[in-house]
Amino acid sequence: MTSLVDFHCHLDLFPDPEAIISQVEGARIRALTMTTTPRAWPHNRELTKDKTYIRPALGYHPELIKGDSSELQLWEKYLPEAKYIGEVGLDGRPEARRFLAEQKEVFSHILHSCAREGKRILSIHSTFAVTEALNLIEEHLPPARGKTILHWFTGTSKEAIRAIDLGCYFSINSAMLSSTKNCAMLAELPTNRIITETDSPFILLNGQTQSPLNIEVTVKKLSNLIHREPEATAQIVHENLIALLS
After folding, report:
1. What is the assigned CATH class of domain 5-245?
2. Most CB atoms within 10 A, among 53, 72, 204, 211?
3. How confident is the model at residue 54 (pLDDT cuts 50, 70, 90)?
4. Sheet strands side by side (includes 54-58)
5. How far apart are CA 234 and CA 228, in angstroms?
C-alpha cells in the first residue's frame, strides 16, 4: 500500500515513546506527533530529530488552559523551531467552556504568531467550538500565511462548508468513521481535503490502544465511506499530504 499517513497522534504519551517511534519509523508511516504542552517540546523534538517519516508539532492544548496561560511565552520561544503546530485550538465541552474566553486569547495569539512567521501547518482542536475556532482562523491566519487541519471535526455540514472555504483540511480517525451521524457529514467533504489520523493513544480498537501502526484500519473505513479501494484511498491521502506540505 502507498505510504500511510497518521497526521495526528501523541507518541510521547505512549508508555515507551522510543519504541513506538522506532516501530512507526520502520513501517514508513508518515506521522505528525502532537505536543500538548510547550514544556514537552524539547523532548518531542529530541525523540524525532533523526527520523525520516515522523515530525513533531509544537502545541498548547486548550484543555490545559484553565486559569493559567503562562506557558504561552514558552510556546512563543519555541515557535521559530517548529514548522508544525499542534495540538492547539478551542474546547467547548462543559468542563472546559468556562475557560473559553482565555482559550480564545491563547488561540488568537497562536494564530497571529503563525501568520507572522508564515509557512506553518496547524492541527486544530475545535470540539463543541467549531464556529468560534473558524472565526479566529478567519480573523488571524490568512490562507497564504499558513495551513490548517481540523482534527477530529464534529461540526455541522454548514460549518464544514465554511471550513472548506477557509482552506481547511480535515484529519479523520476510526472513531469518527464509527458514527453514523459523523459519516453522513464526512461523506460530503471533498476528497482532496482529507487526511488520516489515529489520535492515538486515545482511541481503542477492539479494547486495545491504537497506534499509527493501526492506521490501515482508518484507511479501510474511509474507503468504504468514499467508495474507493483502500489502495486508492491511501493514494488520495498521500497526494493530499503532498499538497498540504507544498
Report:
1. alpha beta
2. 211
3. very high
4. 5-9, 30-33, 54-58, 84-89, 120-125, 146-151, 169-172, 194-196
5. 10
